[in-house]
Input
Amino acid sequence: MKTRLFFPFTLALLCVPFVAAQSADNTELKQVIVFGRHSVRSPLEPNSVLDTFSAQPFPTFSVAPGYLTANGATLETILGGYYRLWFTGEKLLTGNDSADASLVYFRANVIERTIATAQAFAVGMLPAATVSVNHYGPAESDPLFDPVGAHVARMNQQMAVAAVAGRFGDNPQALATAYAPELALARSVLFNYSLAATPAPPTPDGKVDVTAIPFTFAPGGQSGWTVDPGGLGTVLLAVDPFVMEYADGLPASDVGWGQLNAAGISQMLRLYSLGLDLPCRTPYLDKVQSSNLASHVERSMLQAATGNAIPGALGTPATKMIVLIASDAQIVGLAGIFGLDWVLPGYQPNYCAPGGALVLELRQSQTTGEYVVRASYVAQTLDQLRNRTALTLAAPPASAPVFIPGCSGRNATYDCPLTDFVRVAKRVIDPESADLTN
Output
C-alpha cells in the first residue's frame, strides 16, 4: 500500500516544477511556415450533376464550380488580419507593410481558389503592400504540391492500390459498415426524409443513391484520384457542398435543405476525412506524394537558422514568413508523413477546415541559442466562418498545439529541437521523391 501511494505522490512533486515552467516562454520567433487550405469555395461539381444525387435541387452558388466565393475571400482576409496581429506581436513582422513584404514568400497551387485565397490572405496580413503570389500556370503541375504530375516522383499504381486496400483487409464493405451511420445520415438529407424513418424510403425515380454505390479501390487513372475510391468518392462529391453552404453563410433553409446544423455537418465530415486519409496518409502513397514538400519545409527552416542559402529551400535566408496555400489533400499528406494529428472544436480529427493551416514556427531560445520547431493547427470554427466573425488576439480562431512524433518534448507547446526535426525529416522523406530545385 505504501508503494502504491508513494508513486503518484512522487509523480505529483515532479510535475509541479514542470507545469510551472510552462508559463515562461524564452524563445524568439525567427521564421514561420503557414501551410493553409483555400477558404470557402463553391461545390466541386455543377448543379446539373449534384441534382442527380438529391430529391431537391442544390442551392446555387454565384461562382463557377470549385471557385473561391466572395465570402471565402472575405474570410481569408479576416484570417490574414489575425496573423498580422499575431506575428506583429511576436515581432516577426514590424507593422511596416512595405518593409515586411520583402520578408515574406507566398506560393499557391495552380487552381483558382488557392491563388485567390493567397491573395486575400495577403490583403489581410499586409494591407498597405503589394504581395506577389508565386504559382505555376493552370495547365502545369507544381512539383511542390503535385510531384507525381510534375514527374519529380513516381507512383506505382498497383502498389498504391494494394497499400490502401491493405489497411482494411481488402474488404471495402467493412468500411461501408463502419461508416454506416454517416452514410445513413447523408442519404436521409439527400432524399429529404427523417433519419428515424423505418424502413428507409426507396430511391426517388431518376435519382442516384450515392450511398449504395460500392466502395471499390482501383488505380486512379483519369479519375483525378491517386487511388479511385469508387462509391466513396461519389459520396464525397454529394456531401461536400453541405460544409460550404454552412460556411458561406447561406440561409439555414439552404444548408442541407434545412436538415443540417453544425453538429450534423461535423458528423458527415467523418466520410470526408476517410476519403482523404486513405489516399493521402497511407504510408506508401504519402512518401511519394509528400516527400518533396517535406524536404522543402525542412530545408527552409535550416536556411533560416543558418542564414545560408540552401538548395531546395523556399524564399531566401532573410525570409521571415512562408505562406503556402493548397488543398486539404496536400496538408493531410504533409501532416501524415510527419505523423501529426490535431482536433479542433466542432471538427473531426485531422480535418482541414476552409482557410485552416498547419503552422510551423522556427523559434530560438534566448538562453541557450538552440533552435526549436513548434507546430500548431489554426482554423476558424464553422460558426466563425458562417458569421464572418472578426478575429483578434483576444478573440482568436481555434487552435491546437501539435505533437511531432520522435521529436517533440514534454512542454505545453510540444517544442522540437531543430536538430531532431531534421533527423525525423531525413527518416521519413524518400529522397527519390524529392527534388532540390523544384
